[in-house]
Amino acid sequence: MNKKLYHGACLYPELWGRDVLLEDIATMKQAGINVVRIGEFAWSILEPEEGHIDISSFVEVIELLYEYGIDTVMCTPTPTPPIWLSHGHPERMYVDEHGTIMDHGARQHVCTNHPYFRKRASIIIEHIVQAVSSLPGVIAWQLDNEFKAHVAECMCRTCKELWHHWLEQHYGTIESLNEAWGTNVWSQTYQRFEQVPQPGPAPFLHNSSLRTMYQRFSMEKIAEFADEQAAIIRRYSAAPITHNSSIAFHLDNERLFQNLDFASFDTYASKDNAHAYLFNCDLWRNFKPGKNFWIMETSPSHAASLESYATPHPNGYVKAEAVAAYALGAGAFCYWLWRQQRTGSEQPHGSVVSAWGEPTIGHRQVLEVEAARKELEEILQETRPVQAEVAITYSDRAKAYLKTEPHRKLDHRGLVNEFYKRILSLGLHRDVLPEGADLDGYKLLLTPFLPYVSAEYLQRALEFTAGGGIWVVGPLTGGRTEEHTIHTDAGLGELEMLAGVKTVFTYPMDGTGSIGRAFGVSAPLSLWSTVFQPLEGGASVVGEISDGLTPGLAFLTEHRHGKGKIIMLGSMPSGEEGDQLLRQLIQHYTDEAGITVKSDVTPGTIIAPRQRADGQTLWIIINMDGHGGSVTLPCPGTDAVTGHDLPAGQVTVDAFGYKAIFWD
C-alpha cells in the first residue's frame, strides 16, 4: 500500500450510468488519479429491499478501475441506512439533545447503537467484504463516513439503557457515582443507575459530571461500532482499515484509531487557515506512528452546500497543500469529489469535473498536484518524516470538558490551533500528539487547555521532565478532575505540588486590568486564570502580575524536576503584546531545551524535514500563503529534483512553490 504516493478522488458510480462511469475513469487516468473511494452512501443500491443484497455492480466498477490502473478504497455504507430500515421505526432513529427524533434522509439519521441497525449493518458489511475482498484493486477499507459529523450524543431509549450499563461498569455502585459527581447539589442524588438521566432538555444547566461523562460514553460507543465493523472485515480481508475523521466531529479520535490500521482525515480549510490544515497533518501523523496518514477528502476548489459556500482556493494553493501533506507524512491526497453531483444537498460543492463532464476551476489544480506528485514521489519514498523535538498535546477528551464548560464560548480545537500557530510561525518542526502518545525523543512539551490531566499523562510528563525535558503546563490546564469537578486538595490537585507552587486564586481575568510581565514584555492577561505563590524551596517566579485584582502574584513559574523543568502558565496573555509574550516564552524554552530541528523560515512558508536511511536530511520547503518565502540553508546541499549543488545561505521559493533539498 505504501509503494506509491496516492492521488485520489471520491467516485459515485451509483449516481450515474455506465457511459458516464467509463468517461470518468478515462479522464481520471488522464489526470493522474490512481485511487478512488467508493460505496460509503450506497446501501440502498446494494440492498434495495431488506435481505435482497447484490454487490455485483460494485464488483464491476472495481474491476473496471483496476483495468485502468486505478486502485480502490472500499467503504462500508453505514452512514446512510435505507428507507426500509427507517420508515415506521422512530425507535431506531437518532434523537438530539432537545428530544427531536430525526426523520429519514440527509445522513447519520439512525442511532448507531440500536441493535437492529447494528445487525443489518453487520450483514451488509459481511456481504460486501465477501464479494470484493479478493479483487486485486481493493487496497484499503474505509469504515462509514465522518462518524458524528452532523450529530452529537444520541438521546434515544437505546442509548439511555446503554448509558446506565456503562455507568454501572464505570462506577460499580450508585453510591460511588453520587460521591464522584457530588450529586447532593440541587438534590440530584440517585438511588439506582436507571434513574440517571441523559443530558437532554432541562430548565437550566445539567450537572457538569453528567454532561462530560455522557460525551465520553458516546465517544466510546462510536469507537466500539468502528471496532465491530473492522472485526467483520478482518475475517475475509487483509487490506488495511481506516476512517475519514476530523477533530471537528464528536469523537475521541485517539480511541477511534486505536484498533484501525492507518489514520485518515477530511479537511476543507481555506488558505487563511493553512495553520489548521498543517495542525491536522502534524496530529494525524501521530495517531498511528510510523504509518502514512491519508487526506481522504479535500476540495480542489471550494466547499459548498445548498445553504453556504466557501471562497475557491487561489491558483496554486492546492498544489502547496498536497506537497505539504506528502512531505509531512501523507500517503494519499484525495478530493471530494470527482464529478459534481447533479442532485442532493451538496450540488454546489467544488469538484474536478462538472455534472455535465467539463473541467471545473479546480481541474487545473489537480493537474498541478499530479505534476508535483510525480516529481517528488521517488524522493519522498526514500525518506521518512523526522520526529520533532517540540510536542504539543491535543485531546478530544479535553474537547468534551470545554463543551460542558466553555466559559465564553471557548473550544479546545480553536484554542490549541491558535497556540500551535505561534509554534509554526517560529520555524519549529513540531509534532501534535494525542494524549496517550509516547514522549520519548522530545525536549519541549506543551500542554495547553487540558482541563483534566489524567494520572497516566501526569506520570509520563514527569518521567519526561525527570529525564531532562521542559514541560510547559497551561493555560486552563489541570483545574478539573476526571468527573469534571473541582479539586478539593489544591487548585490544581497533585500537579501544583509537583510544580512547586500553591494556587492562591482562580478567576476570570478578562476585563480586570490585570497585566503580566515576563521576558521583558508586558501584556494583558485573559481567560479563566490560576495565580500562584511559590512554595518554600519550590518554584521561581518568571512572570508576575501587576494591576488588576492580584498584583504581586505569579502567572508564570518554573520549577526544577529531575534534570528538567515544569513551567506553569496560569493565564493567557492577550492582544498583540500577549502574542509577543507567548512567542518569547516559546522561544526562551526552545533555546533552553536545545531544540535543533528548526529553521529561520519566513512567515507563510514551512519546512518539512525528512531523513534517508543513511541519515542524510531532506528539507521540503513549501510556501503556503502565496507571497513566496525564504529560509537559510545551514550548509551546502543538493537540489533533490534538479541535482544541482546549492551553496549555504538563503534559498527562496515562489508563491505556492516548493523545493526539495538534501543536506548533511
From TrEMBL:
GO MF annotation, one: beta-galactosidase activity
Alphabetic keyword roster: Glycosidase, Hydrolase, Metal-binding, Zinc
Record-annotated active site: E146, E297
Domain Beta-galactosidase trimerisation, chain residue ranges per copy: 388-595
Top-level taxon: Bacteria
RNA-binding found in the keyword field: no
GO cellular component, one term: beta-galactosidase complex
InterPro entries associated with the record: Beta_galactosidase_C, Beta_galactosidase_Trimer, Class_I_gatase-like, GH, Glyco_hydro_42, Glyco_hydro_42_N
Catalysed conversion reaction: Hydrolysis of terminal non-reducing beta-D-galactose residues in beta-D-galactosides
Pfam families xrefs: Glyco_hydro_42, Glyco_hydro_42C, Glyco_hydro_42M
GO BP terms, alphabetized: galactose metabolic process
Domain Beta-galactosidase C-terminal: from-to ranges: 606-658
Binding site for Zn(2+): C111, C154, C156, C159
Family per record: Belongs to the glycosyl hydrolase 42 family.
Name the UniProt record assigns to this protein: Beta-galactosidase
Protein species of origin: Paenibacillus lentus
Upper lineage: Bacteria, Bacillati, Bacillota, Bacilli, Bacillales
